[in-house]
């Protein structure tokens, strides 16, 4: 069959080559082709993918509304902030201590809740978000739009609202109601936004902010701290900072130590964003936002959220085909490729960037992605931060008691049940175990995905190993297959949801 | 030991917290810290990583020399083009047929050679480059600077100059002496550069250009076609287009079909480049080049050239430390992180981008990376290009003869000796095998690297499998370990060089 196909191709193409004249004769090296299409060459090509940046800029410019109020602090923020009616806000009027810089004088925390708080206030799950998510994890009566974890929250779901009272906040540094770089700087006499006067924050700072809300709500102890991606970091940090106030910890596709690969990908995003002239060193709130830089950054981020195998299946090498283009084209001639997005994988990334670039604040991306980079729970790193190491929870494990601060197997591998000991354990594994000692007595679910290129499966194994080395005997560990990569936590309701439900019950 | 360390940390930090007052008290949730450093917050931070773009722009501006000649076609190209005396140039005055567009009216090919051409002209190795390399693969008497493959070329080396005459060209579309977007457009009345009037080219077009040079040099048949990365693509394409003129094919970390992951990474690079206002839709040759976009693009590319495990070993989570910074800092306080490059992985990527952005032409990056994306040797793809499928070389293999166009094992796996049959062979594998039939009778060395994230090891296995399915019984296949990723071909003289030497002898 193949031989005959090949012969047909050769025959058909030789004919096509002859009939199309000089334009389409190929592969024959010495074919002399004297004709030129000078008119076509002299014409400058069009680049719709470049023009769209200017078009977007014009749209934003015309939509910016300037209030006549002399106290106006500039135009409305150009990204789609949710209506303040769609979430609750807690105003914390006390300073919030920070890891690296002087305290924030005050802060707002936007949050939403699902389910009913028990009279004993002992059924609370604190849900932590990834980088760019708002507090809107699931639909509410105030905001019926589906949330980012819609299928995981509700009666009988992974986070069961018949049983639990679930709280999700917009993270410190974010732009969906919680204090971040776009918020008014209380120390600025004109009340202008912080912009890059906002201090560099840490994952620990995000968690500390969330616990001011728990104090306000009178929640002394969480039933569980649950998070995915950066939320997994926060979840671990919550158990570490407040071991007596966290009953269980869930980390889905998170890590206790950002590795240089993931820092590299986030650095690339920050670099393209900060190079956008509109970024203006972060002071763009009274002008045009760096929408092009944010689009380019999101394109890069999107590459890390899925996996090569998924794109092989979903897009392969397919190209976009505009109907009029297809009609106009002589079917015997090859399709002419473009330098603008052409393959479906390109139009997909372009679309993801375009969708995001007016929905999020560029400075929030910079600060929160930096906080992710800085996250490192090895003991030397924690020591260098002057973060005082809290004692482990006073509740001993169900099995043989382990002394506080006395890891059970620091010198030998803990013998994970769900995966074999690492052949070449990372040199920082003992340091990570030492840093995780405060989590010793808290049951922890670690779930990772083998196709994840951002929070790799090696990091998941390392986390589970380190927790066990730290003496934690209640570590549940799962690896998921599939091709969804890092985004599995948003998509795989059956496996991710099932593991969480089982662990929480 | 750990327990005592932890207790010391807690004790030391509690003391430090007290002595440093409000600034460094952390982790204690309810600590009320009323002080503010308003002066520090009101100050706008500095961003040297952003300022450097403007500084670079000023440097370029002042270095651009305008000739007084009225026929001047603009300032000198701002990237460091090698001296024309350092390479030879062949001017091909006939049109060169192209895959997608009308022929190029004429072209120059820059090339360098090593070794001595045998009287029978039968000892020629054509060496193909990766994306951004020049013809300067190794030092010559005209240009004693080390080349990009210095340690692989010379007496007794992988490409042995005692035995072979090695030719390396700058690729079509490049900017180091061969015709590309920066070349004068012969159809432009003022002789201005093509810029983006340059046609989109294919890997096949690059090879066709190289064979005009071989014709000029009177080389009827190559001893071998050798290439790494994009050079591997060209090497396969040379064997495919001219099966009777290529004795052996070497593909190191190449592929016969670009996958969507690699297209995504190159798309991200093109996007940031084309969004640079200096890019000006490609018409920047009489002004400032898109140096910032090119730097950002190179940063992204660099991420794909090495591997996470290498960065873990080489950089880990180390940060840069400026001597005066370290001196000024109170050692009891945490180091304050910056939003500009701070981790060594960031300063490394920044440095790589900075080094590259004035050494290369942005339009060449766009055109050549696009040609890589377009490369697909499956039969349906070749058919859609109207590339006529040449017959296999007339030389039958040493072992049992295989009929031309009659693949030996198209329906069953060929039983690779060096790796097990793929558990889930890609659905396009039979199509790729059908496309590779013209290479049936040419010995092919396929070498890949397990840590390569750009040209993955799965693609190497796929290529070897497809060649065998196409009936090629002389496929040599090796996989290398190590942590150098895609760049292994530049670094691993022992293993890469050894495999080539063995295969060529």
From TrEMBL, chains A, B:
Residues the record marks as active site: 229, 452, 486
Source organism per UniProt: Hericium alpestre
GO CC annotations, alphabetized: mitochondrion
Ranges of biased composition (kind: Pro residues): 419-428
TM stretches of this protein: none
Protein name, as recorded: AB hydrolase-1 domain-containing protein
Similarity annotation: Belongs to the AB hydrolase superfamily. MetX family.
HAMAP family found in the cross-reference section: MetX_acyltransf
């Amino acid at each position: 069959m193949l031989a005959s196909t090949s012969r047909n191709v050769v025959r058909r193409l030789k004919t096509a080559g002859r009939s199309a004249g000089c334009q389409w004769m190929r592969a024959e090296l010495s074919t002399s082709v004297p004709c030129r299409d000078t008119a076509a060459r002299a014409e400058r090509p069009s680049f719709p993918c470049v023009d769209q940046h200017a078009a977007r800029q014009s749209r934003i410019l015309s939509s910016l509304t300037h209030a006549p109020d002399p106290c106006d602090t500039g135009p409305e923020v150009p990204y789609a902030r949710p209506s303040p009616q769609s979430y609750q806000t807690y105003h914390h009027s006390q300073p919030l201590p920070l890891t690296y810089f002087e305290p924030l004088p005050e802060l707002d925390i936007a949050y939403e809740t699902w389910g009913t708080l028990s009279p004993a206030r002992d059924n609370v799950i604190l849900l932590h978000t990834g980088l760019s998510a708002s507090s809107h994890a699931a639909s509410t009566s105030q905001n019926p739009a589906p949330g980012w974890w819609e299928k995981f929250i509700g009666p009988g779901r992974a986070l069961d609202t018949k049983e639990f009272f679930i709280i999700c906040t917009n993270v410190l540094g974010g732009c969906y109601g919680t204090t971040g770089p776009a918020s008014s700087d209380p120390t600025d006499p004109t009340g202008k936004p912080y912009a890059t006067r906002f201090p560099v924050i840490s994952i620990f700072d995000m968690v500390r902010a969330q616990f001011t809300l728990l104090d306000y709500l009178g929640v002394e102890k969480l039933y569980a701290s649950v998070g995915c991606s950066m939320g997994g970091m926060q979840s671990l940090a919550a158990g570490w900072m407040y071991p007596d106030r966290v009953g269980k910890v869930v980390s889905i596709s998170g890590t206790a130590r950002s590795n240089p690969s993931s820092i590299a990908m986030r650095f690339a995003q920050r670099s393209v964003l900060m190079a956008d002239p509109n970024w203006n060193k972060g002071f763009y709130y009274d002008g045009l936002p760096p929408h092009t830089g944010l689009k380019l950054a999101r394109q890069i981020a999107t590459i890390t959220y899925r996996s090569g195998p998924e794109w092989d299946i979903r897009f392969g090498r397919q190209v976009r085909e505009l109907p009029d283009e297809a009609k106009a084209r002589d079917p015997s001639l090859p399709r002419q490729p473009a330098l603008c997005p052409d393959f479906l994988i390109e139009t997909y990334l372009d679309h993801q960037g375009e969708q995001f670039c007016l929905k999020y604040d560029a400075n929030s991306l910079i600060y929160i992605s930096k906080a992710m980079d800085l996250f490192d729970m090895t003991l030397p790193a924690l020591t260098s931060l002057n973060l005082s190491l809290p004692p482990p929870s006073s509740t001993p494990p169900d099995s043989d008691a382990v002394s506080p601060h006395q890891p059970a197997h620091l010198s030998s591998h803990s013998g994970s049940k769900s995966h074999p000991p690492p052949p070449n354990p990372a040199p920082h594994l003992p340091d990570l175990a030492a840093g995780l000692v405060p989590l010793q007595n808290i049951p922890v679910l670690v779930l990772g995905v083998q196709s994840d290129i951002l929070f790799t499966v090696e990091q998941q194994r390392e986390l589970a190993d380190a927790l066990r080395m730290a003496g934690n005997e209640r570590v549940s560990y799962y690896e998921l297959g599939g091709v969804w990569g890092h985004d599995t936590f948003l998509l795989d309701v059956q496996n991710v949801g099932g593991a969480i439900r089982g662990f929480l019950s």
